[in-house]
Automatic annotation (TrEMBL), chain A:
The gene is nucS. It comes from Klugiella xanthotipulae. It comes from the Bacteria. Its EC number is 3.1.-.-. Keywords: Cytoplasm, DNA-binding, Endonuclease, Hydrolase, Nuclease. One of its GO terms (molecular function) is single-stranded DNA endodeoxyribonuclease activity. Signal peptide: none annotated. Residues 113-226 form the Endonuclease NucS C-terminal domain. Residues 3-106 form the Endonuclease NucS N-terminal PH-like domain. Belongs to the NucS endonuclease family. It is found in: Cytoplasm. This is Endonuclease NucS. Cleaves both 3' and 5' ssDNA extremities of branched DNA structures. GO terms for cellular component: cytoplasm. It holds the Pfam family NucS_C.
Automatic annotation (TrEMBL), chain B:
GO terms for molecular function: 3'-5' exonuclease activity; DNA binding; DNA-directed DNA polymerase activity. The lineage of its organism: Bacteria, Bacillati, Actinomycetota, Actinomycetes, Micrococcales. Residues 127-244 form the DNA polymerase III beta sliding clamp central domain. GO terms for cellular component: cytoplasm; DNA polymerase III complex. Forms a ring-shaped head-to-tail homodimer around DNA. It is found in: Cytoplasm. Its main location: cytoplasm. Residues 247-347 form the DNA polymerase III beta sliding clamp C-terminal domain. GO terms for biological process: DNA strand elongation involved in DNA replication. It comes from Klugiella xanthotipulae. Belongs to the beta sliding clamp family. This is Beta sliding clamp.
Length: 232, 380
């Protein structure tokens, strides 16, 4: 997968579901390995001025004499494969044109806060309730690791699924772990705790219906950051 | 089952029962309103294993029986029916509602699978309805809406001999009020932690009742509280856990305080607060004779206003979140309010501010309402 980065003075026309025109100016053109073409200005953060999503094809078309007279040196036509959308880039002057091979993308690494929450909750396991003790973090099962395995005050195993934002998917995940863990005679019975900084109402309803306890975590309090605007 | 009932009586009863239905239930049965006709009494109930509502009204019962029907639909229908007697009957697994020339046919839910609605005959004590409602309105707004600490999403009931104390906090403020309690139980001290949502609804329901009887009981390892008046009963499971010992946060004695006209300060706070960003605090400078409110918002917007105030003790500057102050002032339910300042040794945390009611500039209010608020750190 190669990414091509071009800095050029160009004007851009988009035709299809909407018509848009970008007047002549110096812009950053990004041609990604997946075929997408994005036109950026020096602003607007991550958002391009205009773009074409894949699947699409880029082809250079011939510059007519009257267009050449107007100063156009190259014309790129980006056509969407499924819709009739069309992006035409009229390049007047090319300042830079480089290509790089970015290699295989490792994807987004597990969210920093989530990993931190796991560590903090393991350190403050009594947040789950009085008398709780930690068995271990990342308890491995055949279908993946459970974030935290603990025991409650009665010594019953508690499997904890941790999320930053708790939604239905997290509850489903924990349900699968619980089903598997409860087949293990050395672990069973295992109860579930769904812990997150924020739990969606639907997720809470589903969790409680399945007998899974919901615990909302205060990240700042776990980190020991005191809020001085409270009474206690 | 077949009975005839007065339109307004029925509509009021249904609306009471339906108000406490769960918002989101995984058991569709629990979204139903239970209708029971027997003798000359019509009983309506709702129950979701945590909260129940039950009321009895007089009806002309032709044939006794029980039925379960979608609560919200029944409520919507009851509210829109014309002024005529309502005849409700069951026919072939459907519920027929007839009123004047209107008729509805609703599907019935299986009534045999409906759980038994808790019935509590004990009485722990009695409270005057009006005081109870006003105490609830004053206190319950301070309860936390955040699920991080479930124990403070409730209102704490503290019964001590002849008084019932209501306490709520969200850690930013604490509201407390005591009312008369006519004890009818064997012991004389008891606490119960009740979900704030239910307490608020109870306050609204029984605002016009003369006395409300309260019972706190243990049943099948579950602790319940019930409120009854005028043939209406609300029960709720108690929240488990220990309420934080917030009473000790209140200062025993304060020398430094200001007395302000409640409405003047509410209006000034609302006006000056217009330029503030959300979550930002207002600066209040109390001097003898006046208090100056200053706000600075984004985009360099500023506002200030000075109103009359009577100050006892030193000049004081505090930074308070407008909404928290407004809640305290409005709940004082009095023409004047006393704002007391406490001292602290912690340079990173100002001493809390106490709001109490005041009937005139010099006379303290008659009720026991107290609202303790943590000011923000002064930034300049």
């Amino acid at each position: 997968m190669w990414v091509r980065v071009v800095i050029a003075k160009c004007s851009v026309d988009y035709a299809g579901r909407l018509n848009a025109h970008l007047p002549l100016a110096t812009r950053l053109l990004m041609l990604k390995g997946d075929g997408s073409v994005l036109i950026h200005s020096d602003g607007g953060s991550y958002k391009p001025l205009n773009w074409m999503s894949p699947p699409c094809t880029l082809s250079a078309i011939e510059v007519e004499p009257d267009q050449a007279e107007a100063g156009i040196t190259e014309i790129w036509k980006v056509t969407h494969a499924k819709t009739a959308d069309l992006l035409v880039i009229n390049i007047h002057e090319m300042f830079s044109d480089t290509s790089h091979d970015l290699g295989v993308d490792p994807g987004l690494i597990k969210d920093g806060v989530e990993a931190d929450l796991q560590k903090l909750l393991a350190e403050h396991i009594e947040t789950l309730g009085e008398g709780h003790t930690l068995v271990r973090r990342e308890y491995y099962t055949a279908i993946g690791p459970v974030d935290i395995l603990a025991r409650d005050a009665m010594g019953v195993h508690v499997a904890v699924e941790l999320k930053r934002r708790g939604d239905i998917d997290g509850v489903e995940q924990l349900t699968r772990y619980l089903e598997l863990m409860n087949r293990d005679p050395l672990l069973a019975p295992v109860t579930g705790v769904f812990a997150a900084q924020e739990i969606k109402p639907q997720a809470r309803t589903l969790a409680e219906d399945r007998g899974i306890r919901c615990v909302v975590l205060d990240y700042d309090a776990l980190r020991g950051l005191a809020n001085h605007n409270t009474l206690f | 089952m077949k009975f005839t009932v007065n339109r307004d009586v029925f509509s009021e009863a249904v609306s009471f029962v339906v108000k406490l239905l769960p918002q989101r239930t995984t058991l569709p049965l629990l979204s139903g309103a239970l209708i029971e006709a027997d003798g000359s009494t019509l009983t309506l109930s709702s129950f979701d294993y945590e909260v129940s509502a039950r009321t009895q009204v007089t009806a002309d019962v032709e044939a006794g029986g029980r039925a379960l029907v979608s609560g919200r639909l029944l409520n919507d229908i009851a509210n829109r029916l014309p002024q005529a007697p309502i005849v409700i009957s069951t026919e072939d697994g459907r519920i027929q509602v007839k009123c004047g020339s209107v008729s509805f046919s609703l599907p019935a839910m299986p009534v045999d699978e409906y759980p038994t609605v808790p019935q509590i005959d004990d009485v722990s004590g009695l409270v005057p309805g009006e005081d109870f409602a006003s105490a609830i309105a004053q206190v319950s707004l301070a309860a936390s809406k955040d699920d991080v600490t479930p124990v403070i999403t409730g209102v704490q009931f503290e019964i001590n001999e002849n008084s019932l104390g209501l306490i709520a906090t969200d850690r930013y403020r604490v509201a407390v009020r005591e009312i008369d309690w006519e004890n009818s139980m064997s012991g004389d001290a008891l606490t119960a932690l009740v979900p704030a949502r239910i307490v608020t609804e109870v306050g609204k329901t029984f605002a016009h009742s003369t006395t409300v009887s309260v019972a706190i009981v243990s049943k099948d390892e579950r602790e319940l509280i019930s409120f009854t008046a005028d043939n209406k009963t609300v029960t709720s499971l108690l929240i488990k856990g220990n309420f934080p010992p917030v009473r000790r946060l209140f200062p025993e004695k304060v020398e430094n305080y200001a007395v302000v006209n409640t409405n003047d300060l509410i209006e000034a706070t609302n006006r000056v607060g217009l330029v503030l960003d959300r979550e930002a605090a207002l600066r209040f400078s109390f001097r003898e004779g006046s208090v100056t409110l200053e706000a600075a918002g984004s985009e360099a917007a500023q506002a200030s206003e000075t109103i009359d105030a009577h100050l006892a003790g030193d000049d004081t500057v505090v930074s308070l979140k407008p909404q928290f102050l407004l809640d305290g002032l409005r709940s004082a339910h009095s023409e004047y309010a006393r704002i007391s300042f406490t001292k602290t040794d912690n340079p990173n945390k100002p001493g809390p501010v106490l709001i109490t009611s005041q009937t005139s500039k010099d006379e303290a209010g008659l009720d026991s309402y107290k609202y303790l608020l943590q000011p923000n750190l002064l930034l300049r």
